[in-house]
Amino acid sequence: MTTQHVAAAQAAPALSFPEGFLWGSATAAYQIEGAVAEDGRTPSIWDTFAHTPGRVANGDNGDVADDHYHRFREDIALMVRLGLTSYRFSIAWPRITPEVTAERLGPVNPAGLGFYSTLVDELLAAGITPSVTLYHWDLPQALEDAGGWTNRATAERFGEYAEVVAGALGDRVPVFITLNEPWCSAFLGYASGVHAPGRTDAVAALTAVHHLNLAHGLAVAALRRAAPAAKVAITLNLAWVTPETASAADADAARRIDGLQNRVFLDPILRGTYPSDVLADTASVTDWSFVAPADLAVISAPIDALGVNYYSPTIVRHWTRERPKESADGHGDSATSPWVAGEDAEFPTQNGPKTDMGWGIDPRGLRELLLRLHREHPGLQLMVTENGAAFPDTVENVDGDRCINDVARSEYLRTHLVAVHEAIAEGAPVVGYYVWSLLDNFEWAYGYGKRFGIIHVEYTTLERTLKDSALFYAEVIRSNAVPRVLP
Ligand code: FCB
Description:
Elements: H1 3-11, E1 15-16, E2 22-26, H2 29-32, H3 45-50, H4 68-82, E3 86-90, H5 93-96, H6 110-125, E4 129-135, H7 141-145, H8 152-169, E5 175-180, H9 182-190, H10 202-226, E6 231-236, E7 241-243, H11 248-271, H12 276-281, H13 295-299, E8 305-309, E9 314-318, H14 336-341, E10 345-346, H15 364-376, E11 381-387, E12 395-398, E13 401-404, H16 407-425, E14 430-436, E15 455-458, E16 463-466, H17 468-479, E17 481-482
Parallel strand pairs: 2-3, 2-14, 3-4, 4-5, 5-6, 6-8, 7-9, 8-11, 11-14
Antiparallel strand pairs: 1-17, 9-10, 12-13, 15-16
This protein binds beta-D-fucopyranose (FCB).
Beta-D-fucopyranose (FCB) is lined by residues 28, 31, 180-181, 184, 237, 309, 386, 436, 443-444, 452.
């Protein structure tokens, strides 16, 4: 932009959001809580995975993480400073029923439930609406030992666990999200193996897809019974899949990736069927005989909202096998989908700005995804349940104060919020937005090296410091509007 353009943009009014729009931030239990052996918690697949040498960068693990389990009051005070109107967090299943096995849920652990009950009470007292995710990847290890998501019993136990949580918190929690990003659980956990439990088995991955969908459906039924007033949602990491060229071959590669990343979840949940092209694409891997006749009716029980997580675009090209496959897609690891069912799709390296994850930055994808959902599933409420960026932050000392001038993160948030605003202006019913993440935290296989927080965490002392992006976001919330250029 020229100086005149900047001046004009600064003078133009900021883009206002609908009244009551939820301004939130998101976290996940294993990434922030620590206290992994406290109050009766038993290991999850992420404890096991992180303690297996070579699985997580620098040998990092979530044993302490941000110590949020002990510092949640301090963290709520920071949320209040930001003016958040909602906070999305997840519940660690191994705290709630630590003795679960494939056969039975086992006794409920009052201390585990108590932690989340207090958290909910204190959020409400602070005027912050809790939005609770039941599963953000920390499967009890005992269930994995019996096959994990390849075992149908895991879905059945998940439905029972959902009923326990809903019964305890449903009187105070207005929104429950069943699963976070089942694509990652299935494909990163069981196909590429870069996430827990670290398996590399295409059949297992597709079996896991179905059992995750079934777990969602069983949880919806449980939530309706035990928390009839609450809204029920699921969060998907949908991809804005774009063929690199207009060729028929690229279009077909994009169709396959769209099938495995998006429609293999959207269609059963929202239409009650698996897409026939996905079944055909994967026929050499499995005949999907793990789908029982009644399952799709369970999976497609109506939901009240869809959570959308969006970070970066996904450009797809037909792979001609003449040279090694490129896998530089946006969200890091979706190269695992073709590993299962489309060996001739690749993710070509892109020019242009990237985050510290190497993920391309393109807010158009968020807008297009929201508009696609609005078009294809009219009337379905949408929430952006995660959006944000990792950048290598530096802490500076300014007149004795710790400062983190993370202008790139503020600009990432600003441009993506403009995209949300555009989607709303075109009719998409988006009711809220959650920045990933409130705090720097354990970024799965990347460990603590990648910082997504709008609040900095000094891991040696666990001191929290608001980054400039947090101050930017606080002003967005205060004004309920997004500026056309960074102030
Ligand atoms: C999403 C996860 C979240 C975090 C962000 C960066 O896939 O849901 O826990 O790791 O990516």
